[in-house]
Design goal:
The protein has about 160 residues and is mainly α. Helix content is about 75%, strand content about 0%. It contains 11 helices and no strands. Helix 7 packs antiparallel against helix 8 and helix 7 crosses helix 11. The longest helix is centred in the middle third of the chain and has 17 residues. The radius of gyration is 17 Å and the shape is elongated.
């Protein structure tokens, strides 16, 4: 399947713009890991899974971009930022809303995101990320506070990552 055929399928068969809503709706859904996974599930139900989006990312030469940027590019003709560019443009806003200890943790998360991709921002990976950074949940709580606060920071910082 050529890039053009694949993109045509997304628009004609899947009605991608209808699934995604407008740009602001997509941004809002994508910027929260809970609603992002719901959107990904909705796309999969319509025949456009993560694997398809990853293939599409290659077709448009955006291998270092977030899947959000791929969707933005296809649905709204917006240029695709690399994950690194996305982080660099959001860092100031992200770090302004969290404390010094949280900055270190979120910087770790963002570096993993730049290297590995969107799965590093999935809420289901939070305990793995914490264990990789701190060795245990207990050690993380000593640095960052209670689990619910760690989860809240992990979810909230992502809205800044996807702001215009």
């Amino acid at each position: 399947v050529s890039a053009e055929e694949f993109i045509k399928k997304l628009f004609d068969t899947l009605k991608l713009p209808e699934i995604l809503g407008g740009e602001d709706e997509l941004r809002q859904l994508w910027s929260n890991p809970l609603t992002r996974s719901e959107l990904i599930s909705r796309l999969e139900k319509h025949g456009c899974g993560k694997e398809d989006l990853n293939k599409l990312r290659e077709l448009i030469n955006a291998e270092n971009s977030d899947l959000f940027d791929v969707l933005q590019y296809i649905a709204f003709s917006n240029p695709a930022l690399t994950r690194k560019e996305r982080v660099e443009s959001a860092e100031y806003n992200i770090y302004n809303f969290i404390n010094k200890e949280q900055v270190e943790f979120i910087r770790f998360v963002l570096n993993n995101y730049i290297q590995e991709g969107i799965d590093e921002l999935d809420i289901s990976n939070l305990s793995t990320i914490i264990n990789a950074k701190y060795g245990s949940i207990n050690e993380a709580q000593k640095e960052l506070g209670p689990s619910n606060e760690i989860q809240e920071v992990f979810i909230k910082f992502q809205k800044f990552l996807y702001q215009k």
